[in-house]
Known about the structure:
Elements: H1 17-25, H2 39-43, H3 50-62, E1 78-81, H4 101-106, H5 110-127, E2 132-134, E3 138-148, E4 153-163, E5 168-171, H6 179-184, E6 190-192, E7 195-198, H7 206-217
Antiparallel strand pairs: 1-3, 2-3, 3-4, 4-5, 5-7, 6-7
Helix pairs in contact: 5-7
Amino acid sequence: MTVEKTTSLSDIPGIASPAATALKAAGFTRIADLDGIDWKELSSLQGIGPATGARLQAHLDELGMHLLNPPAPRDLSATFTREHTGTSAPDIKTTATTMTPESFLAELSEKRGAEGHQLLVLFDRATGERPLMWGPSMIGYGESHYVYASGREGDTFHLGFSPRKASIALYGLQGYPRSAALLDKLGRHKTGAGCIWVNTLADIDLEILQELVAHAWGRDPHSR
């Protein structure tokens, strides 16, 4: 829904009924009523915690309004270390498998299989490491362990790729000192959360990609 200045606090998504009731009892019925109100005052109300305060502040920001001394945003990022601990959240399904990358690539179309082998040679050369299959379709190099602020943790690969049917996914290559400059010279690609998408290897400069891989491999892993 679109939140406007006159929107009732009880109608805002994510604001639980006890919180809306406590706000109404304190004289706050519309989102605009909170403009300039000190967070310390709101946080003393029953049912009003940091998560509710963050949601309210986000809506106020959209309207050009604000709370005084709003709650600090929670850091939900993960801490990555270059190691394998064997400790993962029980619901994590993407783990290293015993399938070989060569066997996986042999099952792909002729074009994607050939591109996968090109990437295998390139990543091998840039990292000096032999890869593992992670899940059914990702080829990963190195092992990293991550722990989120929530306590959720698991093992993953440091960097890698997946030659998917629609496009090729390249993992773990962004966010390092020279990554942006190298990506500017890479060629036609798209970026997502922790991932670079390439339609075909013919669209990019493979020498730049190898430099990008070597650059990421030489740095400690981080959230992606």
